[in-house]
Write a structure and sequence with these properties.
There is one protein chain. The chain has about 550 residues and is of the alpha/beta class. The chain folds into 3 domains: about 5-130 and about 255-430, P-loop containing nucleotide triphosphate hydrolases (Rossmann fold, 3-Layer(aba) Sandwich), CATH 3.40.50; about 135-250, 2-Layer Sandwich (Domain 2, N(10)-formyltetrahydrofolate synthetase); about 445-530, Formyltetrahydrofolate synthetase, domain 3. About 35% of the residues lie in helices and about 20% in strands. It is built from 19 helices and 25 strands. Strands 1, 2, 3, 4, 5, 6, 14, 15, 16, 17, 18 and 19 form a 12-stranded mixed sheet that branches. Strand 1 and strand 2 form a beta hairpin. Helix 7 (about 130-150) runs antiparallel to helix 10 (about 245-250) and helix 9 (about 215-225) crosses helix 10 (about 245-250). The radius of gyration is 23 Å and the shape is globular. It starts with 6 loop residues before the first helix and ends with a strand.
Length: about 550
């Protein structure tokens, strides 16, 4: 194992190459790049359009077992695998989501990988980057302002102020903004009504941004956003308040994919960033397709466990875009296996092979679930310094017991050298047996049955339940032309159930549906299950407490 240094120390010491050199690795000419300094660039949309017909590479999804609150290293593994593929002589690129400021200052403290498997420049990527999220937030809030302005100037669309469902957003965890009352202070401020904020990464604009194929598709999708309803429950859309054009203008530069590099100077596309527990959890279709047009192998990740990120990657992103995954890598850690096997938080660093084995039920279910999509699966055991050989061996045996190969991976400590075995196996999988990908449910299944299919087939629930109002909402969506849409499940990331404390591999539980929201522009229906929030709060001790500038003006505390 390498000597311990913090992620930010490793990133700051990286020998970065000019971004034009990184583009050249993928045969992207310098004049197609729009640099943001020396090491970040956007790839011009005109060039992206011209290269759509290039031969397409193989796509590998990195997902995970049900994570602990500290995360199990999907991003780190994605970077390590991409680096290792290049190390063994393959032309490979990675595709990641952009970090949100909310978790960077909340629980995570950064989301650009870790150790010797990072994307750089780490500080800029974690903080503001190319301004994409600010543009998405501005577009979302422009629509909110135009809705209230329309109400103020006579409301010719006859919007029912009680049925406006478009919320404002901010890229920060701020529980105080979940429910607000706006337009207080007198006649000149408009008509008071209940309102609220979501985090930017939960906005439908973010989802649209990440699913759009080009600017025309972006504007068309924005126009379809249902912002609210009239008294007769007929929908009012963003195009009805003439917002789509201006919102697209705010997003036109942001839509161009971002290109950066790994610590080992391999190409990385970092673009878009919907959460996976409250949104669809994948980077942009545009970035993924651009990578596939320029690399033979593209490694991408989807957020949280396979029951959330991978399910939405397959059933929403791939369904809508036509993307065809060739294989999936499920990240497992000894720490998470012990957590699901009953170890206490304070005991996770202590050897406990029995707990690893017991927690293996969680990993096995994820393996079995991903196989239902018809693609080959391999497990990456992301090794931590506190893991023992016996524990790692037990983790590998868990995967083998359900006919799935598993490899110890030490990319955090050793970079690409620690993930070579996994890379060789992935190449063998996708070149010899890429399976026959299929989604979990057909378009013509009812919305209620789609939710029930996900709950019973992937969560092992016995049923789903909802109050009469929610069931009526399902019926209205079904009867008004939205029944063909896929469902986007919003639930806790810490359990197959909706109870974050129900660890391991629970079965025969019931999934309570609290709310259903239409995202007509994104092209899915959000189904909120349990107590999940679309505006997170900061933890008791947020990462922001430790982030500061040192005496040299350098950022400290990001990790």
């Amino acid at each position: 194992m390498a000597d311990y240094k913090s992620d930010i120390e490793i990133a700051r010491a990286a020998s970065k190459k000019p971004i034009q050199d990184i583009g050249a690795r993928l045969d992207i000419p310098a004049d197609a790049l729009e640099p943001f300094g020396k090491h970040i660039a956007k790839i011009g949309l005109d060039y992206v359009d011209k290269t759509r017909s290039n031969p397409q590479g193989k796509m590998i999804l990195v997902t995970a077992m049900t994570p602990t609150q500290w995360g199990e290293g999907k991003t780190t593994t994605t970077v390590g695998l991409g680096d290792a593929l290049n190390r063994i002589g393959k032309k490979a690129a990675i595709c990641l989501r952009e970090p949100s400021l909310g978790p960077c200052f909340g629980m995570k403290g950064g989301a650009a990988g870790g150790g010797y498997a990072q994307v750089v420049p780490m500080e800029q990527i974690n903080l503001h980057f190319t301004g994409d999220f600010h543009a998405i937030g501005a577009a979302n809030n422009l629509l909110a302002a135009m809705i209230d302005n329309h109400m103020y100037w006579g409301n010719s669309l006859e919007l029912d102020s009680r049925r406006i469902n478009w919320r404002r957003v901010v890229d920060m965890n701020d529980r105080a903004l979940r429910q607000i009352t706006n337009s207080l202070g007198g006649v000149t401020n408009g008509f008071p009504r209940e309102d609220g904020f979501d985090i930017v990464v939960a906005s439908e604009v973010m989802a649209i941004f990440c699913l759009a194929n080009d600017l025309h598709d972006l504007e068309e999708r924005i126009g379809k956003i249902v912002v609210g309803y009239r008294r007769d429950r007929s929908p009012v859309r963003a195009k009805d308040v003439d917002a789509a054009g201006a919102m697209t203008v705010l997003l036109k530069d942001a839509l161009a994919p971002n290109l950066v590099q790994t610590l080992e100077n391999n190409p990385a596309f970092v673009h878009g960033g919907p959460f996976a527990n409250i949104a669809h959890g994948c980077n942009s279709v545009l970035a993924t397709k651009t990578a596939l047009s320029h690399a033979d192998y593209v490694v991408t990740e989807a957020g949280f466990g396979a029951d959330l990120g991978a399910e939405k990657f397959f059933d929403i992103k791939c369904r809508q875009s036509g993307l065809d995954p060739s294989a999936a890598v499920i990240v497992a850690t000894v720490r998470a296996l012990k957590w699901h096997g009953g170890s206490a938080k304070d005991d996770l660093a202590k050897e406990n092979v029995e707990a690893v084995t017991k927690g293996g039920k969680n990993l096995k279910r994820h393996i079995e679930n991903v196989k239902k999509y018809g693609i080959p699966v391999v497990v990456a055991v992301n090794r931590f310094p506190t893991d023992t050989d016996a524990e790692v061996a037990a983790a590998i045996e868990i995967a083998k017991s359900v006919d799935c190969a598993a490899y110890e991976c030490t990319h955090w400590a050793n970079g690409s050298a620690g993930t070579e075995d996994l890379a060789n196996h992935v190449v063998k999988l996708v070149d010899e047996d890429s399976g026959s990908f299929e989604v979990l449910y057909p378009d013509d299944m009812s919305l209620w049955d789609k939710v029930k299919t996900v709950a019973t087939k992937l969560y092992n629930a016995s049923d789903i339940i909802a109050e009469k109002k929610v069931r009526n909402d399902f019926a209205w969506l079904q009867d008004n032309g939205f029944g063909h849409l896929p469902v986007c499940m919003a639930k806790t990331q810490y359990s197959f159930s909706t109870d974050p404390l129900l660890l391991g591999s629970p079965s025969d539980h019931v999934v309570p549906i609290r709310e259903v929201r239409l995202s007509a522009g994104a092209g899915f229906v959000v189904v909120i299950a349990g107590a999940i929030m679309t505006m997170p709060g900061l933890p008791r001790e947020p990462a922001a407490n430790r982030i500061h500038l040192n005496d040299r003006g350098e950022i400290e505390g990001l990790f």
